[in-house]
């Protein structure tokens, strides 16, 4: 019965995730902008977390992660909307639109919106466990929960401060063609991605008192996607191709985990994204 209950809760969440993406897809058709999916990515997790909590245990302790998800998701969606405002559709979707032409409307539904809805649902499995069952706050679990909250705070700071520092840097015309190697970017080439990874592993830790150990594939998938698919490797390939000077920044700065900058033989500076 418990397994059936969890399965029903998970399936209901999949329906919510796909419903969210379907509505965003309809909006993208009206606005001819498929990159809306990126702007509402974080907000989708907010809706999922609240749905699972409201239809589940409604436990006071479980409400803490839901509030943290809300802070993270609303910040991310607000930031991406502000950053991309007035810039039109992202080049990745423009290339897809040019390739598929008249068929793009339905191709985008499945290859962009449904796909991201499923990925969102899989990654959010720790949030499902948190909302479905009241966490066990006996024994060592309060300490685990506290460590998770501290990890979340670390990730949120790196992600939000890193985005803010980069936005300020790029807003100054004097920094055109230069590497952003100040602030958090001095210690890691991707403080925002590092912070995002920390946040998702924190949610998994928060799910452990509710029996969510089996949802480890959620943060693992997010980590893999950030490092190998949609984040670090994709971004750095473009920078290395366009700006040979970026290689010097790579030599002296850790990719993800913050660390002390290494001494570099070169003082040339390139361009950060």
Automatic annotation (TrEMBL):
InterPro entries: UstE-like. The keyword Transmembrane applies. Signal peptide: none annotated. Keywords: Membrane, Transmembrane, Transmembrane helix. The chain crosses the membrane at residues 6-29, 36-54, 60-82, 103-123, 143-166, 187-206, 212-235. PANTHER family: 3-OXO-5-ALPHA-STEROID 4-DEHYDROGENASE (PTHR32251), STEROID 5-ALPHA REDUCTASE C-TERMINAL DOMAIN-CONTAINING PROTEIN (PTHR32251:SF17). This is DUF1295 domain-containing protein.
